[in-house]
Write a structure and sequence with these properties.
alpha/beta; Rossmann fold; seven-stranded mixed beta sheet; about 50% helix; about 20% strand; globular
């Protein structure tokens, strides 16, 4: 039931407009950071990229700036989301209406991304398997989502940055649909994907100031820029960053 409720804001034109305002205010910088991490983890210039749950097309629009020669694809189960995305992207990406579980293609992708949609999938184990199958040899998938095991003080800290009740209600709906950490571990284990990895919080799941975090920043200065901007605006704190998990799938 919580998953059905969490999908409702994306099912009407009015809901999409409300979400766009939320997205532009609270998600733009974190999504850019997500893309920059994905480009580092990809370890090559991606030729073919798929966004699973592409929504308004904002992530693909940023990817078009960063990877002007890449072939971009996006799928989303919401026709209203895709209508909005097509206005944003025009001919810059091929968009298709489909959930990940029933999407079929003969194209292999160097990079597959999914930003904050895993909790909305009908069958996450099968969805992850589909993603693995669609990766090109040497390709990578990066999936970020909320988890439900948040202490009350973390939720309260996030609420400090959501001044309107409608914003808090939206976040609560999405959080209630998210999986617990133990549920996520079970999903990954039961997907039986070789080398699938989940990390929590930090920078791409690495602790702040760890050697891995520093290496990421050294490889891509834009990561440092977005971390700084998020921190200065109050949206990236150690507690808030613990609210997400980072899932990586690599195909040999």
């Amino acid at each position: 039931m919580s998953r059905v409720i969490a999908r409702q804001p994306f099912s009407t034109p009015e809901g999409i407009e409300d979400y766009v305002q939320f997205e532009q205010r609270f998600l733009t910088l974190s999504r850019c950071l997500f893309v920059e991490i994905a480009l580092v983890e990809c370890n090559r210039v991606p030729g073919y990229v798929l966004d699973v749950g592409c929504g308004t097309g904002a992530l693909l629009a940023y990817l078009r700036e960063r990877c002007p020669n890449a072939k971009l694809f996006g799928i989303d189960p919401s026709s209203h989301m895709l209508t909005y995305a097509r206005r944003i992207l025009a001919d810059n990406a091929l968009l298709m209406q489909s959930p990940i579980e029933s999407f079929t293609t003969t194209q292999a992708f160097d990079l597959i991304v999914s930003y904050s949609t895993l909790r909305l999938w009908d069958n996450p184990q099968y969805g992850l398997q589909k993603i693995y199958e669609m990766l090109a040899p040497g390709g990578i998938a990066y999936i970020l989502d909320l988890h439900r095991d948040l202490p009350l003080d973390t939720v309260q800290e996030i609420f400090l940055h959501l001044p309107e009740q409608s914003q808090r209600t939206f976040f609560e709906q999405q959080l209630s649909a998210a999986y617990t950490l133990s549920e996520l571990r079970y999903i990954l284990q039961s997907s039986k994907i070789p080398g699938i990895e989940m990390r929590q919080g930090g920078l791409a799941g690495y602790p702040p100031f760890s050697a891995e975090s520093i290496t990421l920043i050294q490889q891509n200065p834009r990561i440092a820029e977005y971390v700084f901007r998020l921190g200065s605006e109050g949206f990236r704190t150690p507690k808030a960053s613990e609210a997400v998990v980072h899932i990586f799938i690599r195909k040999e």
